[in-house]
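# step 3/5: fold
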Amino acid sequence: MMSSHILVVDDEAAIRDMVRMALEMEGFTVSDASNAHQASKILESEDIDLILLDWMMPGISGVDFAGRIRREGNASVGIIMVTAKDDENDLIRGLDVGADDYVKKPFSTKELISRINAVLRRLSDNGVTSDIVSAGKITIDSTEHRISIDGSNVDFSPTEFRLLHFLLTHSDRVFARDQLLDSVWGNQVYVEDRTVDVHIRRLRKVLEPFECDSYINTVRGVGYRFSLPTA
């Protein structure tokens, strides 16, 4: 089986070398870049499965680069932000632009590898029960990893894809945040409850132009539910 290909983007050579060594010891294929420009060139020429992306870099910051990757429609690559920031609003901003997870500096290689494996599992496992499911204006094709709304293909990040698929295929059931974390992120990953709120907000933002944001309901004091509006 081919190893996953990880792109490490950090302006500090010592960190790139340390992470490369740890990942290669785990059997990953590793490329690295010191800035967003170099990383863009690698993404154009190599098949990358996941990006470890430093937040603070000269020129284009990691968070801005992550947002650009998602805007350009590259939804299949995983993104983990690596940051020294610990302000909640900053971390939420990273998730809000499309990152799948984040790791705070300083970090242990054990934690880093655990988070990488968790994101890669989510990318490869859609948790599907059928290839094509539909509700209202939304159709999800799990084989092609594609979502269409009202006949138009719409890009979602891998985590958002899984979250929308899970909610749609469990329509009218209310799920608490911890239940969504276990079902969508997996029960062995280090993800905060607030992460669910961020991704729900992103889902609604993408669905809003199609007037489908109302499909995702907030059940006060409990959690979230996918439900089609009644006539």
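# step 4/5: annotate
DSSP finds eight helices and twelve strands in the chain.
# step 5/5: archive (pending)
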